[in-house]
Amino acid sequence: MSTFPSFHEPDDSDDVWAAREAPTHVSIPMSIQIQLDGEQIDVTGFERTLPPHSAVRDRTRLVSAGTGNPYTALTDDAWHSIARAVVSPRTVGTILSDHSESASSLIDEHVGGAVLRSVHARVWLTELFPGLQPRTGQEALPVADPEVHGDVDADGLPRAVLAYRYRDMGHLEAHLRQTIAYTRRANRDPYDASILARRVTRPVIAHPCRLEFADGTEAVHVLVVRDGITRLTSAWALLSRDGTPEGIARTATDAMLAEKPTRRGSEEKPLSQRMALGRQDVLAELHGEFMRGVGEDPPSGRAVRIGQACVFPAQITVGVQAYEESSLPRAEVFDDAVRSVLASVHVEFKAWDSAAQNVEVGARALMRLVRSEAADRLTEDAEAVYELALGRLPLDALPKVFGNRDIPETELWRAVYLTHFLTRPTVFDAVKRYAKQIKGTRRMTTAGYAEILGPIIDRSWRAGKKNTLRQARNAWANGGVLTDEVRQADWAPIPCSNFTSLVEPALRGNKNARLTLAVAGGIALMADKLLSRNVGSAVPEIVPFRADVNLTVTKLSEPTNEKGLWLLAHAADRFDATRGAVNSFTDSQVEKSGGSGEQFYTHVKVDLTSHDKILRDEAGSPVPLTQHEVVTVSDPVRAAEEGSEERPPEHSPIADRLAWARQRLGLLLADAETTLNQLLAMAGTPEAGTLYAFGSVDEWKKLHGPSANIQSSLWNNQLQDEEPLSEQDEYEYEYEDDA
User: Which residues contact 514 (CB under 8 A, 6 or more apart)?
Assistant: First the structure.
């Protein structure tokens, strides 16, 4: 038997199941009923046996077959992690042994820049570690992700393995628990019942991974799941005796990180092997519980849970081959290829939310920029900017990254400098091109590019402003602060401790000062929901007229708009990344939150006659800024024109206010009806083919619900002294009115 420097298969004396022979009969599946959270579940296909643990010789043969297959690209240690994980290494070894020159028995997937090769197998739950969760990429979570590194062989060719570098074992444990607990909370409809009823039916996507530690702890080789972490979490939920997210995470992590110490007097085994034996002991305990439970009639609930959750179908990546024209460094080819597969899965099957998709696209596009020729022409260190954008560098690195010691180490200045960097023509064109390649689209608007920037820029205040995060990202998707000047002009941010100091230079024609205010103030207004997308924003109490966000920022930052520049400056100065602005909420929302004055801060209206340019009420308190005021200041002339149809003042007669509201409702309904007719007409053209006018059932429900509510409200509030119209009368009345 071959020996390996950091891992070897244990002797039979170390293998707790080595002497157990495979069953000589096939278990007949049965159907039973079981309770789950008070609900009765019909379990189909339950078997009274679990697969036996594999023999050492079969695992060794798999490793030999894998290393001898020219289509694979793994280290010996990686092969051992696979051999330990699969239920039947003999079967997988046979597949790997078939490698004729003309074809491979592996599954090929052609993705951007590479071919991935994988094998299908059944694996033990206890051997699957959750990899980096794409959904967490858009969140602000307390435990930082590990560093991710690719791997190449002696010839510089990519391997189908990654290295996750943690600070220490404590960091690994905390990160695993965070990933599982967050995944559990993020999915409102977990797969517990489905797994209990039918087991896991769709394969998870997995690959070998080397867990490294900055403190010098010995590396550990495992199999990580890249797609299927929700299924993984649900399976552990069935096995955990504590159903809370933290309890589930604790059960799973305790099993993954179990370690079997070396017997006294024996040669010390590598940590990777000690942990593999520890997980094997956990599996043996589960197997013992299962055997005791299936002896009952009917089988115990615990036995059923173990039997349904312990074995997973998996697609394990074992090979990667880079295209010759791939521009990525060979060490990064594999990770990019896997992420490409995941992105396609979660667009076609079960999509991540748009922010998670944008984080993924943005991160991969930025990495391509870092490795491109365009990066050589930049004055900034593109790789350092990439690390800062992904949150891998702290705020105190900001001055060094952009080469200016005067840059304040704040969240908003991070946002300003990242926005400036990502909108330079060279960077903008390159990242946009890479993003289109990743998304597989031929066109991307400026608003589409801004939408990708949103969840990258807001990384620093996701936790502090979680209640306005969705609206802020919608504002980015509506153009954000990407005005024509911000994108196209030759300018640079001016670092300062007080943004109001930039107003006078901006009014005198200093473009750098003016665009610094546009970006900083615009981001602050979006983050606190004072500048939102124009869709559905035509109600006069909210804004005086509709306008795209980037156009509003353009108007606010014009060199002749003194009030707009002061508004942007005050918004940037008052911005706080750790909490929300009181302007973002209604009075009732503030009251329900139990918020004190310290919990919120206030954006203020501008008064050019005041010494500090802040409008104050009779008591001397600053007057809070509103969305209506922001849009009005951006274009006072248009606001005045639109204002001719604004609602009467609150002190005007009630009859006038009711008349205005009725008229306004009529106009909105007429506008809605016109749009509906246009929609149906477009859907009826030959060009539309079989496309449904209302998109999908869910989209139809979103339209039908509000319209039904309006119709119901109108019906329920008809004049009481009139005879209600019959359906026939109502039909005739409508057409008489049209005539």
Answer: 502, 505, 506, 557, 559, 565
Q: What is the pLDDT of residue 595?
A: 54
Helical packing angle, 562-574 and 627-634, nearest 10°:
140
> What is d(CA 223, CA 74) in angstroms, rounded to the nearest whole number?
12
Distance CA 517, CA 130 (A): 43
C-alpha angle with apex 359: 390 to 382, nearest 5 degrees? 40
Q: How far is CA 57 from CA 1, 5, 12, 40, 63, in A?
A: 9, 19, 10, 43, 10
Nearest to 632 by CA among 484, 530, 504: 530
Q: Looking at residue 10, what is its pLDDT? A: 55
pLDDT of 250 > 60? The answer is yes
CA angle 128, 281, 287 (to 5 degrees): 85
Stretch 471-492: mean pLDDT = 92
User: Encoding tokens for residue 261?
Assistant: 């110490």
| SS percent in the chain: helix, strand, coil, step 5 | 50, 10, 35
> Three-state DSSP class for 647?
coil
**Residue 349: CB partners within 8 Å, gap ≥ 6?**
none
Bigger pLDDT: 465 vs 653:
465
From the number of C-beta atoms within 10 Å of its C-beta (0-12, 13-18, 19+), residue 714 rates as exposed
pLDDT of residue 360: 76
Which of the 8 DSSP states describes residue 20?
P
**691 phi/psi in degrees, rounded to 5:** -65, 135
**Long-range CB contacts for residues 469-476, cutoff 8 Å, separation at least 24:** 471/529, 471/532, 472/526, 472/527, 472/528, 472/529, 473/354, 473/355, 474/532, 474/533, 474/535, 475/526, 475/531, 475/532, 475/533, 475/549, 476/450, 476/451, 476/526, 476/549
Geometric angle at alpha carbon 521, from 515 and 523, rounded to 5°: 100
Q: Which of 279, 196, 292 is nearest to 237 (CA)?
A: 196
Coil, helix or strand for 211? strand
Cα distance between residue 73 and residue 64, in whole Å: 13
Q: How far is CA 505 from CA 201, 413, 417, 482, in A?
A: 64, 19, 20, 22
- Whether the per-residue pLDDT at 708 is higher than 70: the answer is yes
How far is residue 553's CA from residue 571's CA, in Å, rounded to a whole number?
13
Range 147-155 average pLDDT: 90
* Residue given tokens 């790789």 in the structure block: 383
| Pairing of the two strands 204-213 and 162-166 | parallel
Report yes or no: 250 and 177 within 8 Å, Cβ to Cβ.
Answer: yes
**Six-digit token pair at 712?**
């119901």
* Interaxial angle between packed helices 382-389 and 411-422, expressed in degrees from 0 to 180 and rounded to the nearest 10: 130
pLDDT at 371 over 60: yes
3-state secondary structure of 285: helix
